[in-house]
Amino acid sequence: MPDPAIHIAGLTKSYGDVQALRGVDISIAKGEFFGLLGPNGAGKTTIINILTGLVFKDNGSTSVFGRDTVTDYRFTRSKIGIAAQELSVDWFFPIEKLLYFQAGYYGIEPKNAMNNINDLLSRMGLENKRGARLRQLSGGMKRRFQLAKALVHDPDIIILDEPTAGVDVELRRDLWQYLRDVHSNGKTILLTTHYIEEAEMLCENVAIIDEGKILKEGSPKALTQELGKAGITVQLNHTPADLVQYLAGFTYTQEKNRLHFVVKDPDSAMPKIIHELSKSDVHIQNIATSSSSLEDVFLDITGKGINE
Amino acid sequence: MNWVGLWTLTKREVGRFFSVYRQTVLPGLISSALYILIFGFTLEQRISEIQGVSYTLFILPGLIMMNTLTNATSNTASSMLQMKLLQQLPDLLTAPLSGFEIALAYIVGGTVRGLVNGVLVLLLGVFLIDLPVTDPIGTLVFIFLVSWAFSSMGLVLGQLAESWDQLAMMQNFFLTPLSFLGGIFYSIHMLPDWAQSLSFINPVYYMINGIRYTILGISDSSVMFSFWMAVFLTLIFTATAILLMQSGRKIKQ
After folding, report:
1. What is the span of the domain harbouring residue A285?
2. What are the residues whose beta carbons fall under 8 Å from the beta carbon of A166, sequence distance 6 or more?
3. Interface list for chain A against chain B, based on CB atoms closer than 8 Å
4. ipTM score assigned to the predicted complex
C-alpha cells in the first residue's frame, strides 16, 4: 500500500495554557480532496502550520509521502504548495517577479519556471496584471495570485487555508471550479474551511475538528447517512387498515393521510417505501424528501453551529 | 544545499534596496556630501590639522564607516521586520530553505548595500576632496568585513524586534551612539583619559581607525588589531544570526 500523501498521528500543540491540538490523527491518500471542517480557533491552521514548518509541534508525528516533515523538510516542503489564509503584502516587486522568486525558493530556475508562470497568470486572469504590484490588485485578484503562488512549483499537495474567506459568491464559485480542475489533474488537496457548503461540494472526505480534536471523519455523504436524519414525506389518497403491516420495518409517523418516514439515506429508502406502499390499495399523491446536510451533522456532533 | 533558493533570496534582498535607492543609497551620499561641504568650507578653517591631515580628510574614513555599518544594519533589520509584519515571511519559512540559507541570503543582501554605500562615499571623497587612498585593497576589505558583520547584526535585531518602534530604539540608543563615539569626528587623544578608556571597549572605534589607516595612513589603534577585531565581530555576529534563524525564535511558534 503506498504511503499516504499526508499522515498525522497523535499531534499535540499548546500555546501557553491553551491546548490548540489534543492528539490529532489524519491520513490523506494521494489524489484525495480532503477537508478540515471546523469553526474559527478549532486548530485547523495550527495543523497546517505544523505540516509546513511554521509552528513547532509538541508531540506526535507528521509525514508527507512517508517522510517526516521535520527531519526531511526539504523533501516534504517541496511537495507542498500552500495558499495561506492571510494575504501577504509586497510592494517592492511586480507580481510576475514575485512568482519567479517563489519558484526560485523551491529550487526552480527562472527559465524552467517561465512556462508555468505564464500559464498560471493566464489561467488566473492575471495576464494583464503581470507588471502590477500587489496593492494594485483587487481582493479577488489577490486571492487568485495567492493560489498561483501556491502552484508555481507544481506541487503534488496543495494546502488551502480558508481560500474563500471574505470572497464574494461569484469568485468563490470560480475558485471552486478551479480547485476541481486542479484536483482532476491528480493533485492532493487539503482544504480548511468553515463553510459547510464548500466542504460538502468539493471534498471527498472531511474531518470535523473542534477544540483541537478530530470528532468525526468520512465522506460528506457517509457522515450525513450515518449521523444525519433525512426524511421522506408521502401524501396518500387514503390510509387503509392493512398499511401498517407493510410498513412494519420503517420508522415513520402518520398524520391523517400523510406519512413521514425517518431514514438514513433517502435515495435507497424511497424505492423500498414505494414498493411496500404499492402492495396496499393506495394512490400516492405526492412525495417529498428532506435530506440532512453536513451542517446538521456538525451540529449533532459538536452541539453548536460552525460559526458560533 | 538549495543553491537556487539561496541565490533567489539574495537577488530579492539586493533588488529590494535597489528598487528604493532614493531611500537606501542616496541619503548617505547626500549627508556625506553635506558633511564635506560644511566642514570643508566653514569649520575646517577654525580646526587645526589632526595627525597631519586636514579635518575634512580626517573625518571622511569615519563617514564611510558610519554609512557602511548603518546601511548594512538597516537593510537586514528592516527587511526582516517588514517581512514579519507584512506576512511575507511564511513564504520563506514554508519553502525548502534551511535557516542557514535564509540567514546567508539576508546577510549577503545587507553586505551588498553596506559595500555600495561605503564605496560611493569613498568615491565622493576621492572626487570632491582628493581623498588619498593609500591601501585600496585594505579599505575594501574593511568595508566588506564591517558590512558583513553589521548586516548580520541587523538580521538579529530584525528577527528579535516586534515593531518599528523597537527597531528604531535599538538603532538610536545603541548603534548611533557607538558610531559617533567611535571617533568619526575626533582622535581619541583629544579625549580625557577616562573617555579614552571607554573608547577601547567600543568595537566601532577599531573599525573607524582601521579604515582610517588604510586610507590616510594614520590611526589611533594598531591596524592589525582593528583587522582582527573586524574579523572577530564578523564571525560572532554571523554565527549569532545563523543560530537565531535556525532556532526560529520570534518567527516560528
Report:
1. 229-291
2. A139
3. 15, 49, 52-56, 73-75, 77-78, 80, 82, 84, 86-90, 92-93, 100-102, 104-109, 149
4. 0.86
B16–A92 CB contact, under 8 Å? yes
Do A175 and A148 share a structural domain? yes
Do A78 and A166 share a domain, yes or no? yes
Answer yes or no: do A105 and B9 touch at CB < 8 A. Answer: yes
A76: closest chain B residue by CA: B96
pLDDT for the residue A306 = 63
With beta carbons under 8 A apart, name residues in chain A contacting B87. Answer: 84, 86-89
- Are B252 and A56 within 8 A, CB to CB? yes
More confident of the two residues A113 and A166: A113
Select from A61, A105, A81, A214 the least CA-distant residue to A159: A81
CB atoms within 10 A of CB A243: 18
Total structural domains within chain A: 2
CB contact under 8 A, A109 and B93: no
Q: Kindly report the length of chain A.
A: 308
Residues in chain B: 253
End-to-end CA distance of chain B: 25
- CA distances for A10 relative to A42, A172, A301, B52, angstroms: 16, 33, 21, 74
Query: Does one domain contain both A188 and A238?
Result: no
At A72-109, the pLDDT tens digits run 999 999 999 998 887 777 878 999 999 999 999 999 98
Query: Residue A83 is which amino acid?
Result: A
Q: Cβ atoms within 10 A of the Cβ of B178, count?
A: 16
- Torsion sign (Cα): B66, B72, B73, B78: positive
Interchain CB distance below 8 Å, B8 and A52: no
In this complex, the residue of B87, B95, B248 whose CB is nearest that of residue A88 is: B87
Residue A283 backbone phi and psi in degrees, to 5: -110, 130
Nearest-CA distance A105 → chain B (Å) = 4
Residue in B201, B209, B184 with CA at minimum distance from that of residue B62: B184
> Which residue, A139, A143, A144, A133, is CA-closest to A92?
A133
**The last residue of a domain, from among A221, A243, A275:** A221
Q: Is there a contact between B96 and A89 if contact means CB atoms under 8 Å apart?
A: no
**Among B3, B12, B95, whose Cβ lies nearest the Cβ of A106?**
B95
Task: Name A263's bridge partners.
Answer: A230
CB–CB of B143/B211 below 8 Å?
yes
For residue A187, give the C-alpha cell.
493533485
Domain boundary among A163, A186, A221: A221
- Interchain CB distance below 8 Å, A107 and B2: yes
Q: B168-220, pLDDT tens digit by residue?
A: 988 888 888 888 888 777 777 788 888 778 888 888 888 888 888 899 888 87
